[in-house]
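Q: I have 290 residues here and want to know how they pack in 3D. Can you give me a structure?
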Amino acid sequence: MLWQATTNGLLLGGLYGIATIGFSMVWGVMGVINLAHTGFIMLGAYTTYGLYHWVGLDPIASIPISMAAMFALGYVLQVLILNQIIRTSLLLSLVVTFGIELVMVDAVSNAFTSDVRSVNASYAASSIELFGVLIPVVRLVAAGFSIALGIAFYAFLRFTRAGQMILATALDREVAALMGINPERIYALTAGAGAALAGATGSLASMLFPIMPGMGLTFLSAVFVITVLGGIGSVEGCIVAGFIYGLVQAWSGYYLGANYQEIVGFALFLLVLVLRPQGLFGRAFFGEHA
């Protein structure tokens, strides 16, 4: 049923949007394509899994803990590793972040094995019927929290001193430094915030997807497409593009079959690069649209 597929695509699109914000921000502020981002999503899911099975904590209640843990990890990695190579080359940052991703995956594989795990909350099988369309409660909750976190991060950037320093550093690192802003500290804050949002994504995804060491890679193509579609560094662009991507995947799966979803997604990626390389909400560079 088309309306059912559309609903599922929209709800999943909210999760894709929040999964992309941190990736897009790090790219926009620092010029780093952080391939370790999906590793933070995976670690967030395992954090929720552990708290659910060992402590009995509801997956939703575990989100702040996942975010705090991933913020700390992202901040430390930025300070100890990425700040040392950020001014070198894009290729080196790609290699280093990919290496960090592999370390995360291997560490989790050794700790938990590669067995597929799951989080089955009490409301996991519940649905709401609206005009003949079934709305899974878990997907509705995930989409709602994704939108709320996206709005909160947007407000953080626009209305707090730390957020304004992030935007100033993205606009011009040298001028920001002359005004007393420490770029390395701002980069660490940005990386930590991006990792925190990835951790929240992992917590929400743990209720929707199988939990395994390589689960973060399922988000990699989505975050690339959504970042380009929404505009690099644009929070609102990520949210809108996430819903668009979710719809495109749902409709392509409905009309063409599941095997064509990724093909259509990458075709959208190429189309945006050709017709509007800056994305829906982007400009020539990130600072111009702040």
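Q: Anything worth noting?
A: The CA atoms of residues 231 and 254 lie 27 Å apart. Confidence is low (pLDDT under 50) at residues 284-290.
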